[in-house]
Amino acid sequence: MLTISEVNVTIIVFQSLGDCKSRYFTGEHCSPLQNFVYMQNWLPICRDAHCASATFNNRIFQSCKGVKELKPKYIKRIADIVLNASLESSGAVLIEGPKWCGKTRTAEEKAASVLYMQDPDKATSHMKAADTKPSLLLRGKTPRLIDEWQSAPVLWDAVRFAADQRGGTGHFILTGSAVPMDNIVQHTGAGRISRLLMRPMTLFESLESSGDVSLNSIFEGKAVIEGISPLTVERLAFVLVRGGWPASVVEKDTIAIRRVFDYVEAVINADISKVDGIEKSPARVRALMRSLARNVSTTANFATIRNDIAADEETISDKTIASYINALRRIFVVEDLPAWNPAMRSKTAIRTSPKRHFIDPSIATTVLRAAPENLLQDFNTFGLLFESLCVRDLRVYAHAADGEVFHFRDSSGLEADAIIHLKDGRWGAVEVKMGNKEIETAAENLKVLRQKVNTEKMKEPSFLMVLTATEYAYQRADGVYIVPIGCLKN
């Protein structure tokens, strides 16, 4: 335990972020982001304060005189880049995503005024104003943040109309953790309200990736493919179970995992029924989510899921499965990966089924009751969940580059776990493999895919990559990139 004298505060200076990543304080194990956040938040405060026998116990300087309630510094997100660009081009921006992913905190950083629709002290009056004259709630400095706007869906049309009337850009930011029921708003908002899907933190955002390899630089042809991942397989198992939830990544390990459990229980017992006002059986929801978790990173259809659920002695129809999955999609719990449909040289049939994924793989481990040590004893499950973790991060990195992520599989069995396709037509293919033994096969598959794509109708791939759980990033002699997920950034 690090102690601090009564008069002088020992100042720990990290010369670089890299130093921070390798430091762990005595006591409970801290993630790099914990160390970084604690240094950022508390050291500057206590530097000039008189601390009476304060002790730095991984979280705070205790007993600092004159230090009152403090708001932690904002941890920058990749979504900041997208939000800034969207505010410059649209009258309003809608930030969607699951609860606890950091939507409100990110929006607050940019907002000049804020309306919290679910503030318990003001919710009733806000709802009355929305029913009577919704434009009253839009008054305030801009950009004006309207948090959890779906509590009063009429605000959508009010914002669209106000943005139209005012002209210009950057008037409003809306945040929402659920998609309202169909036809509840009069206008789609196309051309006035841009959309930003915010996901949980990537490993780079939580400072668990070194960031030695940039996806943007790869697309630009400027990347130097070299680096060392700081993540061991054991730590990967933990961060997968913990997830990328901002409140979890700065907590000690036991509490971090408990937070995910609380989130999943809220989804099962309340949120999934609230989204459409239809009561759902928690037992069936749990059985469905367990089946989706067992089939993560696969193209399991309803029949497969139904039969899998039946093995748990819980019967459910295809209609109910579809209804429940749609509700989970509307609260951003599941996010399937669509199939890529490129122009091919041959007439080989391309599979069109999406791959099953949760918005964060920690949801899957939670419903499966899988602890990090369980994953280390079942590398088949670990591998599928690792693929889902990689897809989560790739989606965030691609979104910042104005791109989307797909998967590819044809009738011959040729596949790529992720295709990153930018709006300007550039694309890259990724295979996800945990260990070194699988790299050779994965690289060969990617080269076969490159040959099959009709480059007379499409661009040549910007890159071929094997994304791994290994230590070193490098470029093979055949041009294929080998990149640990612990080295990647946007």
List key phrases describing it:
3 domains; Rossmann fold; alpha/beta; about 500 residues; 5-stranded parallel β-sheet; globular
Characterization of this structure:
The chain has 490 residues and is of the alpha/beta class. The chain is 38% helix and 14% strand. The chain has 17 helices and 16 strands. It has helices spanning 17-22, 32-46, 79-89, 103-110, 123-132, 154-166, 215-220, 233-242, 246-249, 253-274, 282-294, 302-310, 318-330, 361-367, 372-376, 379-400, 439-452; strands at residues 2-3, 55-56, 92-96, 113-116, 144-147, 172-176, 193-197, 213-214, 227-228, 403-409, 415-422, 427-433, 463-468, 472-475, 481-484, 488-489. The strands form four sheets. A seven-stranded mixed beta sheet has the order 9-14-15-13-12-11-10, sandwiched between helices. Helix 8 (233-242) packs across helix 14 and helix 11 packs across helix 12. The protein is globular and about 65 Å long. The two termini are 36 Å apart. 46% of the residues are buried.
Q: Would you tell me the structural class of the helices and strands?
A: alpha/beta
Distance between the amino and carboxyl termini: 36 Å
Radius of gyration: 24 Å
Uncertain residue segments:
1-29, 38-69
Average predicted local confidence, pLDDT: 85
Number of helices: 17
Helix content: 25-40%
Major sheet: arrangement of strands: 9-14-15-13-12-11-10
Estimate nothing, just give the exact number of structural domains: 3
Shape: globular
The count of DSSP E runs of length 2 or more, i.e. the number of strands, is: 16
Task: Tell me the fraction of residues in β-strands, as a range.
Answer: 5-15%
How would a textbook summarize the main sheet?
Answer: 7 strands, mixed
